[in-house]
Amino acid sequence: MTSPALTEDFQHLRGCEASFARAEFAERQKRARAALQAAGQEAIIVSGPETIYWLTGRQTAGYFAFQALILPADEEPTLLVRQLELFGAVANTWLEDIVTYQDGENPVDALLAVLKARNIRKPAMELGGWFLSPRVAIEIAERLDVGELLDGSHILPPLRMLKSAAELDAIRAAARYAQAGIVAGINACAAGTDENAVAAAMLSAATQAGSEAMAMEPLVSSGPRSSLPHMTWRRRTLSAGDPVFLELAGSHARYHAALMRTIWLGTPPVEAQRMMDCSLHALDAALASIRPGVPCSVPHNSAQTVIDEAGYTAAFRKRIGYSMGVAFAPDWGEGAILSLFSDVSRPIEAGMVFHLPATLRSYGHWTVGASETVIVTDHGAEPLSNLPRTLTIR
């Protein structure tokens, strides 16, 4: 194992690529330690790139390789990364203790050495992420001789629900990038062009506006394939009479804001326009019901009522919204942390951020709708876009 704290050669790199000030991460770690103490845990091993980033600023495209943050309840954390990632980790973070494993070595050996050195006997572990394989988790449990690892997946993610001022600034910037991308996508829609050209326009405009790498690619689909959820571009040529569905998230310091709009090349069918009107009324109802103290179920139920009364229950089989914030591929949202959905009793609070995609689908024909990313203030929902939500006719 290697620790840059023991070497002077790269001290000048520490924090030079950090997304936020040292004090921002110190405050997050303080809150995390308090949460561990409240949960009665001596330490947690964090494996998800989002939580590691939220706590330390550590970011890389190389999170496919094993990495872990060991956070004791009463001491400073230790970051374990692949040797290749060492200098990037030093530059991204303000951490004093970073250890590494070499390609060809078993990272579990390095992890257990850290735990032994820090006298951590029975840590909780973030088991719910996408990037911790069951095989590795089983090996850690067996070699710690604890029988079964304590699942600490629920301890830290809730701390991310309420955004700091610095986080909100990043999300506002991401929203500007997303709007630039959607505007460019709308302008690129025309008969004779194809989905790839529309996607290229969206990506180019958002990137030129300032967006960093996005946690998920833009969604661009046209014609009958626009009715299928989460479709990406596939070279299809746009024709007169086509619906076009566009959705994009901008990214600033790994914080995301998403935006979705619908375009029609020509006059839409009466039923499509009726569905579009319903989706906008549902979105308005959801936005109007967002305010501190209200359960997360209320915005969803408000939207669902509008949709049900219009007879489109079968066209809307999903939640009305989900939390936004730190994101790494494959998802741009924090929907695993908090949803605006039926039976979610968690009260909404000022400082939360949600994306509300109000979509109705006629499967095999079209999707219509619009979305907003909003910041919850003391007075309600603050949309981060000023782009018209109505169906764009081109």
UniProtKB/TrEMBL annotation:
Listed Pfam families: Creatinase_N (PF01321), Peptidase_M24 (PF00557)
Sequence ranges assigned to domain Peptidase M24 in this UniProt record: 170-378
UniProt feature coiled coil, ranges: none
InterPro entries linked to this entry: Creatin/AminoP/Spt16_N (IPR029149), Creatinase/aminopeptidase-like (IPR036005), Creatinase_N (IPR000587), Pept_M24 (IPR000994), Peptidase_M24B (IPR050659)
Domain Creatinase N-terminal residue range list: 28-161
Record protein name field: M24 family metallopeptidase
Species per Swiss-Prot/TrEMBL record: Rhizobium leguminosarum
